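FORM 7B: Structural annotation worksheet

SECTION A. Query
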Amino acid sequence: MFFTGRSHRDSGWRPGASFLLAVVLGAAVLGPGASARQGTAAEVGVALKALPVEAQTTHRLIREGGPFKYQKDGIVFGNRERLLPRQPRGYYREYTVPTPKSRDRGARRIVCGGLRSVSPDACYYTDDHYASVRLIAP
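SECTION B. Predicted structure
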């Protein structure tokens, strides 16, 4: 916005109007009970085909019920980072996405939520160990 010598009162701009519009639109996108931070994953999606081949394989194994290479695959994901929509404990499960040349499990994961692990409601991908997550679009 350029300064024209007029105050914001002269321009018709109201400071509360923009904020209110953002809140209303955010609520429509996120749904009831979600905060702006929790909506981050749902707003930024990634196509399954755009993920690394290891992530595509892990996603297929999740839908087939395994077998999984790592003992911790399928454990409950606590969502402590609060990047995913709030759900009861046990709703989310995490799975390792192997990282080539890594000596351990690496930082890549898929987290799926739902009552049935082989047909999850939604899955999310992270390549930075939960610093960020993206909704996997089919």
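SECTION C. Observations
The longest helix spans residues 15-30. The longest strand covers residues 92-96.

SECTION D. Sign-off
Analyst initials: ____
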